[in-house]
Write the structure tokens for this entry.
Amino acid sequence: MTTLDHGPAPTDAAREPVHLLRAGSLTDALAQLATEGAVPLGGGVGHALARQARRPVTARTLVAVADIPELAGIAWTDDRIVIGAGVRLDAIASDTRLREEWPVVAEAAGSVATARIRRMVTLGGNIAARDDSHDPPVALAAAGAVLTVRGAGHRRTLPVTEVGSLSAGELVQDVRLPRSTPGARIGSAYEKFLVRGVWEYACVNVGAVVALDESGTVERLSVAVGSVTGGPVVVDLGALPGRVPDADLVAEAARLAAAATRPYSDVRGSAAYKSLMIAEFTRRAVSKAALRAAGGADR
């Protein structure tokens, strides 16, 4: 066990030492997480940022889980893709098969911060942080991904949008994406708006998935929006499938996305400004996803 010194802090609670445990297996990790005040530690970026900002640290024990075998790797079956919670974002962004089948997910992972940070951040840690502006959860929500959650003596699945229901002692084991059938016309895309540059949280981020039938009509359309209250929010676009993916459909999807979400004002923009950006970046994401579904060159 290692004691971490997290430096000066504004409260007495934050000055308490934090103990680091290294789990060798999923079973070990779940046993260690059963300890009161224990939380899982992925790549450690979130914890480091909290220390740097001198925010109070409530966890008394961190359980390092990023390198345990049960959380590693990307597995492909006939009907699903299973991404371990310990997989780093850089590995997701650079995975050739994932970029081909689910570009929205690879693009979101590749848009996070800097290359150095992406080599540290784990997928599970990024999701479990429950930050509405994080990129991968938005893309995964649009793709219909589900989480495998483990706790002491139990296992359950839940949509990415319900990660807030994680309880003490639980951790994300993996993320599961559906496979498309051979020949399916499915396209996806991720778009985000940054006010200043790469080293900041998104002002607006949008993931879109478009599936076309043989005639070129929209069979399925999914849009998820982040950086909004309760995000990521999957927008109800139930009336749009059955139409051709033309400019009118794209404009309607953009309008519905802006109407269905509640952005908040912060240093990146007012709520009213963000609503305009949600519409614009939904338009971009849906347009690109539709082009890819139709076999366009933009991949």
In short: The chain has three domains: 19-64, 74-177, 186-294. Residues 1-10 have pLDDT under 50 and may be disordered. Residues 271-293 form the longest helix (23 residues). The CA atoms of residues 230 and 281 lie 19 Å apart.
